[in-house]
């Protein structure tokens, strides 16, 4: 697996369990890239949905991907604070085309006061049956929901008080 280099602009490709593309983020600047970790930043990037529709992100965001965790975390910087959107999905891989992962529907939205909501449980159950998620995947994902909630409560990793600010400042150095 190739390692993305700091300052490089990459795409992020989200797939579904059946191998079909789910969503593509057009441009993300790599702020840190190792075999196991990619931290990126983007702002007003084009997002293409599986049906071809496009939209543009509204605010700056710092993205956190780790090869040991079945989730990724996006910290969105808004006027009233940092909101987090956490996708339960496979650990990432990176190749010459993009950073890639499988999206498994479950999401956790975290508000600036660190309260959170688990989203899309119905969608997860529907796709689990439709695409035949193996029981082992179901167990891994449910364990990782628990791990993610623990990170939120402990203010660990991207949820730590200065994480998003530090990486956003780094991102701004590439924008000037």
Structure explained in plain terms:
With 176 residues, the chain is of the alpha+beta class. It has one domain (9-159): FomD barrel-like fold. The protein is 25% helix and 42% strand. The chain has three helices and eleven strands; from the N terminus they run βββββββββββααα. A seven-stranded mixed barrel has the order 1-2-3-6-7-8-10. A hairpin with a 4-residue loop joins strand 6 and strand 7. The protein is globular, with a radius of gyration of 16 Å. The protein starts with 8 loop residues before the first strand and ends with a helix. Belongs to the Ntdp family. InterPro entries: DUF402, FomD-like_sf, Ntdp-like, SA1684. Mg(2+) 1 binds at residues 87, 103, 107. Its cofactor is Mg(2+). It catalyses: a ribonucleoside 5'-diphosphate + H2O = a ribonucleoside 5'-phosphate + phosphate + H(+); a ribonucleoside 5'-triphosphate + H2O = a ribonucleoside 5'-diphosphate + phosphate + H(+).
Radius of gyration from the alpha-carbon trace, in angstroms: 16 Å
State the shape: globular
- Write out the strand line-up for the largest beta sheet, numbering strands in chain order: 1-2-3-6-7-8-10
Low-confidence stretches: none
CATH fold-level assignment: FomD barrel-like fold
Proportion in β-strands: 35-45%
Number of strands: 11
Q: Mean pLDDT, nearest integer?
A: 97
The CATH superfamily name is FomD-like
Level of helix content? 25-40%
Strand count, sense and closure of the main sheet? 7 strands, mixed, barrel
Task: Give the C-level CATH assignment.
Answer: Mainly Beta
**N- to C-terminal distance:** 30 Å
SSE string: EEEEEEEEEEEHHH
Q: Into how many domains do the coordinates divide?
A: 1
Supply the CATH architecture: Beta Barrel
Please give the count of helices. Answer: 3
Structural class: alpha+beta
């Amino acid at each position: 697996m190739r390692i993305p280099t700091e300052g490089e602009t990459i795409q992020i490709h989200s797939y579904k369990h059946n191998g079909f593309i789910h969503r593509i983020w057009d441009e993300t600047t790599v702020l840190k890239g190792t075999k196991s970790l990619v931290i990126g930043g983007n702002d007003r990037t084009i997002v293409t949905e599986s049906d071809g529709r496009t939209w543009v992100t509204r605010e700056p965001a710092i993205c956190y991907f780790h090869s040991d965790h079945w989730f990724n975390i996006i910290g969105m910087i808004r006027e009233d604070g940092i909101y987090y959107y956490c996708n339960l999905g496979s650990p990432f891989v990176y190749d010459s085309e993009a950073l890639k992962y499988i999206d498994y529907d479950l999401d956790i939205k975290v508000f600036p006061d660190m309260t959170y909501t688990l989203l899309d449980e119905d969608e997860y159950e529907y796709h689990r049956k439709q695409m035949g998620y193996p029981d082992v995947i179901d167990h891994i994902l449910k364990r990782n929901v628990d791990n993610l909630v623990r990170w939120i409560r402990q203010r660990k990793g991207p949820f730590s008080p200065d994480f998003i600010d530090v990486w956003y400042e780094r991102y701004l150095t590439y924008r000037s």
